[in-house]
Amino acid sequence: MTGATDVLVLGGAGVDTVIHVPGLPLPYADSFPVDSGIRTRAGQTGDFVAVGLAALGLRTHHLDLLGDDPEGDLVRALHREHGITLTTFPQPAGTRRAVNLVGPDGRRQSLYDTTRGRPGDRFPEATLRELAAASRHVHLTITPPCARALPVLRETGVPLSTDLHDWDGRNPYHEPFAYAADIVFLSAAALAEPERTMRRIAERGRAGTVVATAGARGAYLLTDGELTRIPAAAPPAPVVDSNGAGDAFAAAFLYGLLSGESPGRCARYGAIAGAHACTVPAGRAEAVGRDDLLRRAHEPER
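Structure tokens predicted for Adenosine kinase:
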């Protein structure tokens, strides 16, 4: 059964309500008109990674807890639309939700509803072992059920990746993920010294590759002890929303990895996919396709 799935994505299924605001931080006012509308759509970090992987032709399986509610129905419909296998277990507290405020420049601020979970939430061990054993790679989101899955995943020996998002390098919640994964993605947004944090992850954990994305400034790539800068890719259209850019980067990087590419080429793929994601309006879940990614990867860097 090994290899029936290219990437198993764990956790991170949910629904976002996206609101375009006149600026961030949002100044205090009794009310604001929202001329662009308020949209609720399926797609949180695990969903976007899965969509990105599937768009690149990888056999993708997503596992999470999901509510029996309208938001859960949106998530299920998203996976059907993109041909992604979805295995879910009941979440009585309801499907994960968030509100994303998006500024005119595409930057966003997310407000997460932490009530959509229960103490002790976890994936059934037998299912987790079976799906991991059938996968070439496992990508974990940093939700509590995934934290509790780490011991089982380590026993399977399947290569792991995770995204620490805007970790500040100090919050202890992120450390088990940072030190258990073979590939670690994170944002440099909250890091005063990205290189220092990246090297600490590599020294204390299993990661042979650490990537810190830095938006329009590109990314930092640490592999085999060597730090390099990855230039940002030029967006193919105007930037409208940065939601999902980091997830797109991770998906394209993993595509390169599973295709046998070097870490530098994988990061180049990630930069292209992240730039593409910034041009996609918040109401759509759309990722760069394989042909477009490979074509752009062979164009001269601008």
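The longest strand covers residues 14-20.
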